[in-house]
Design goal:
binds heme C, 215 residues, single chain, 4 strands
Amino acid sequence: MKYLVVVFCMILFSCGSGERVSKEVFDEVNKNMEVKRLTEAEILQKAMIWGDSISTQAQGQLVSALTKAIADGGPEGAIEFCNVKALPILGEVGEANGIEIRRASNRFRKPSDKPTEQEKPILEAYEYNAENNIASDPNIQKIEGGETYLYTKAIVIPGAFCLSCHGDPTSEISPKTLEKINALYPEDKATGHRIGDLRGMWSLKIPKSEVVKRM
Ligand code: HEC
């Protein structure tokens, strides 16, 4: 009888402990599947690639809408188009990706494109580089306690296409276009540019959670 009790206890113990181990293993596997173990560096790298692709996509959308507007109504007609449509186009890109996207410039056309305190030092670095013929790399940094990334990329005037609205006001911008610009943007600082000039920068606020979601 005594012998039987010992055997019974051994079975109980082995079953109990066996069950405990397998549950731990089970939990661990589950945890690994649920919580992607990503390092900060991996998330930052992904945010950088993603920021680059979103800003490239936004640039493409603006340029193709602008090209169509110029074909329909000439540069002077396209001024009105930009005035009304540039922000909603960027708004849509931002919403689709769960981020905030805008352009900032010290030589702004739209007053709301004036740089924020956060953007100012980065924009100044891009300006310094442009003045000294140094190429600017995109930049990414943590803001808002580390839960959001600020991705920025310099916008350089790539070609003559931009000059019909951002070039020399006496020779490259037509009087009609200039009139429209002055009427809609009385504070405009965005003329007198040449090819290769820094026009401003892309500025994207990317929540870390949105980056992780996509990894
Ligand atoms: C048809 C005229 C036109 C052309 C061509 C044009 N832009 Fe603009 N651009 C505008 C207008 C108008 C705004 C203000 C948009 C707004 O109200 O949101 C603007 C704003 C911008 C801004 C935002 C910063 C600011 O000054 O407010 C950047 C950056 C910019 N343009 C870059 C370019 C580049 C680069 C090109 C060439 C690829 C280009 N633009 C071609 C009319 C033009």
